[in-house]
Design a protein that fits this description.
- By secondary structure, the protein is an all-beta fold.
- It has one domain.
- Helices cover 0% and strands 28% of the residues.
- It is built from no helices and two strands.
- It has a two-stranded antiparallel sheet.
- It starts with 5 loop residues before the first strand and ends with a strand.
Amino acid sequence: MTERVKLQFRAEAFNLTNTPSYFVANNQNDAPTTNAVQGAGFGKIVITNPNYTPRALQLALKLIF
């Protein structure tokens, strides 16, 4: 803008492709939705990772004077 005033633009992206992280449950052999037993969910991916974070975009403007 001028010599004494500056404008800074910043863009950040996290998990840009929005790729899901599938969850394999441990020690839950009695649950019918896990792949550990031959139940209704055998051979199917039915749950994503509980720590999964979806796509996040962040924009920022910074005025320095």
